[in-house]
Every structure is written in C-alpha cells, then in structure tokens.
Write a structure and sequence with these properties.
The complex is a heterodimer of chains A (175) and B (245).
Chain A (H helix, E strand, L loop, with lengths): L1 H51 L4 E9 L4 E9 L2 E12 L2 E9 L5 E9 L4 H14 L3 H6 L6 H24 L1
Antiparallel strand pairs in A: 1-2, 2-3, 3-4, 4-5
Chain B lengths: L6 H10 L12 H6 L4 H25 L8 H23 L1 H7 L1 H4 L5 H11 L4 H31 L1 E4 L9 E4 L14 H54 L1
Antiparallel strand pairs in B: 1-2
Helix pairs in contact in B: 1-8, 3-4, 3-7, 3-8, 4-5, 4-7, 7-8
The chains are: A alpha+beta (175), B mainly alpha (245).
C-alpha cells in the first residue's frame, strides 16, 4: 500500500513537472512565433537578393508537396526574366539545414543561400563547400565537389540542390 | 539559518577560480571548443549558459523537497530542457545572428554536465539564495573561460577582433592589432586550433596550480623545520639550565 502511494506520488510529480514545462514552452512559442517567422521571411528576402541581385522581386509562390517534403518555390523576376528560387529543407545526423536554391530561366543552377544551418559542422560546411560553390565559375561542377571537411553535410546539400533542380524542371515541363 | 560572514563571496568566487567548471573541473568542453572562434560568440554562449544555469538551479532548489528521489534526474532534465528550449526560442526570435552562429550548441546545453552537475551536487541540497549565487559564480566562471579561449583564438587566427557581427545592435567594429593581421594563423580558427589553445591554457592553469601547491608544501616544510629548530633550541636551553642547577 505504501509502495503504491509512493508510485502514485512519483508519477503525479513527474506529470505535473512535464505539464508545466509543456505549458511554459507553449507560451514561449506563442510569444516568439511571429518574430521567428518574420526573421525567416527577412532571411528569404536577403537570400533572393544575394542570388538574383537587389532588383529582384518575388511575384508568385507555390507550395510543392511529395512524400518526402513540403517546400516552396518562389517565382522571381530578375533582369526582366522569370527565374526560380527553391526552398529546400533537409537533415542528417549532424542536424538540420534549409537552403534557398536559385535557378535561371534556363534551369541552370544560379546560386545558393543558407536560411537555417543547425549542422554540427556548420561553419566548416559554409567555409569549405557553400562559399567556394558561390564563387565558382561553373557552379554545377562545384556542386559535385563534395570533398570538404564536412563531406556528409555537403552531400546533403548536393542532394537538396539536385532535388530542387528536379522540381523546377517539372514545373517548367508543366508550363 | 545564519550565514557565515563572507560565505556568499566565497560561494560566488569558487566557480570562477578554485572550481572553475572548464579550466579546473574540465567540464563542458564540447561547446568550449566549438563556440570560441570569436569573442562575440563566446560571450553569447556564456550568457545563454548562465541564464539556463541560473534558472534551473533556482527552480530545482525551490522544488528540492517536493521531487521524490527516484525521479530526481529525469525531473531535473525536464526542467533544464524547458529552460534551454525557452532560451533557444528567444534567441531565435530576438538574436537570430547568435542563434545561427551557435547552432546546435544552444540545444546541447541540455546535456551539458555542468548544468546537471550543479543541480545534483548543489541546488538539490541547498537553499535558493545559495543555489543562485553558486549558479552565478559557475556561469561567470564558464563565460570568462570561454572568453579567454576565444580571445587567443580570434587574435591568433585573424589578427584582431570583430564586434557587431553577432550582436547586431552594436555597430560593426573591427579592432585590428597593427601588424598582427600579417601574422594571423588561420589554424587557430579551426577545431584543431581550439584543441591547441585549450591545451596550452590548461597547461598554464596546471602549472599555476602546481606552483601554488609546491609553494604551500615548501612553506609547510619551512614552518616544520622552524618549529623543530625552536624545539631543539628550547631543549638545549632547558638542558643548559639543568646543568647550571
């Protein structure tokens, strides 16, 4: 009987602590959600400007869904041409990464911008893979060169970009 | 309960000097190596860590009599995880640059052994005020250690310091030490450089500790010798007095 009482008290205590924690996190989420969304939108706008130049504008967005992910394609007007930016989210055992991948009107890979980088080797990945890719003359070749200090993360990025390319190709085919 | 005079100061200072979590207890080394690339990132990590440690220590101390022994550790982990999640969300909302710089290491504060260690070893046995002071001391001690590593890594790796990149509310300032930029070694900005700097700092701390211990031992030996000499002289004086009589 004494044991049962002890088990009940233990379970109730842990339950109360868990519920209180969930409540506090919920309230914090409520307070910060809008600001986080706004920060993310700012990052997307900055990313679009980084890839397509400061005179680019988003004129349409489209949500893409398949069994693997739900992502967004941004239709961008830059240099009087219709171009695309694809939001690609992915994760591996080193954490999450979200990218904005840009393609020109000929479906050629134009540039890349990081929106979220929660990878353990975040800065190694940016310094050794993403930055050289941005600066490379032939971005497609640079995309395949994944021999950097964070190869695993670099492969994830390559796969995300290739995924994005396929989606953009499909959209173009439909049009 | 009456507090001893100077106990609070001693409690606070122990986290900074005698029981410094990073340089003496060698705890929390993962984020220390990963987030000390720049002084700004180290300060940011230190502040977030201190906030989590302060909040969790205070709450655990408040609840210490209500939490049954069997579920102590899971309850502490839930409390710590809650504060870490809150800190993560607030950082993401209001300091996005710091959030993206520290990345996964904000979440990893949950499993930082200093936080759980202080909860188990101190907050669960002491009052709220003492736990608060203990957490403050440990947090400040950890932050200062991170800053020490970051100071050398940024200086040796880039030849100066940059402020305003992470804390965007301050104007972007680059402090370049004249001539140092030419001799900057980028290795110190890499994980290998972090290990080298950490090793050197630990060696210096160990040297100081050993010197102190040696000095203490030497002083004790001197005092013993002095006491023996005094006793000998006293005995000789007594014998001389006995002979005269």
């Amino acid at each position: 009987m004494a044991n049962t009482k002890r088990y009940v008290i233990t379970a109730i205590t842990l339950g109360i602590i868990g519920a209180a924690s969930a409540g506090i996190i919920g309230v914090t989420n409520l307070v910060t959600r809008e600001k986080i969304k706004q920060n993310e939108q700012n990052k997307i706008n900055e990313g679009i400007a980084e890839i397509f130049g400061h005179n680019s504008t988003i004129f349409n967005t489209q949500s893409i869904e398949n069994e693997k992910y739900t992502n967004t394609v941004y239709f961008v007007k830059a240099d009087e041409k219709n171009q695309y930016a694809f939001r690609a989210d992915g994760s591996n055992m080193y954490g999450k990464i979200s990218l904005l991948v840009g393609f020109n009107e000929l479906n050629q890979f134009k540039g890349i911008s990081v929106i979220v980088n929660e990878q353990t080797y975040a800065s190694t990945l940016v310094n050794n893979y993403i930055n050289p890719m941005k600066e490379a003359d032939n971005k497609d070749d640079a995309l395949e060169d994944v021999s950097c200090g964070a190869t695993y993360g670099a492969k994830l990025i390559r796969d995300l970009v290739n995924d994005a390319r396929n989606v953009v190709k499909k959209i173009n085919a439909k049009e | 309960m009456k507090r001893e005079k100077g106990q609070t100061k001693k409690n606070f200072l122990k986290g900074i000097i005698q029981e410094n979590p990073l340089l003496v207890s060698i705890l929390g080394t993962c984020p220390a190596l990963a987030t000390t690339k720049s002084l700004e990132a180290a300060i940011g990590m230190g502040i977030l860590f201190t906030i989590v440690l302060l909040c969790s220590n205070v709450l655990i101390s408040l609840l210490r009599k209500l939490i049954p022994d069997e579920i102590r550790t899971p309850a502490y982990i839930v409390i710590i995880a809650t504060f870490v999640t809150m800190v993560k969300m607030f950082t993401n909302a209001f300091l996005p640059e710091l959030y993206s710089t520290l990345g996964v290491f904000i979440s990893l504060i949950v499993v930082n052994c200093i936080v759980l260690g202080r909860a188990e070893a101190y907050a669960s046995k002491n009052g709220v005020f003492d736990s608060f002071i203990d957490a403050l001391g440990m947090g400040v001690g950890y932050t200062l250690s991170l800053c020490l590593l970051a100071f050398f890594r940024e200086l040796l790796g880039t030849g100066g310091f940059t402020f305003g990149q992470i804390f965007t509310f301050i104007p972007l300032t680059k402090l370049i030490i004249p001539g140092a930029e030419k001799f900057a070694i980028s290795l110190f900005q890499t994980p290998a450089g972090a290990f080298i700097v950490f090793g050197i700092v630990l060696a210096v701390v160990a040297f100081i500790k050993n010197r102190k211990a040696e000095l203490k031992a030497f002083e004790a030996k001197q005092a013993k010798l002095k006491a023996a000499e005094e006793a000998k002289a006293k005995l000789a004086a007594q014998q001389a007095q006995g002979g005269q009589q």
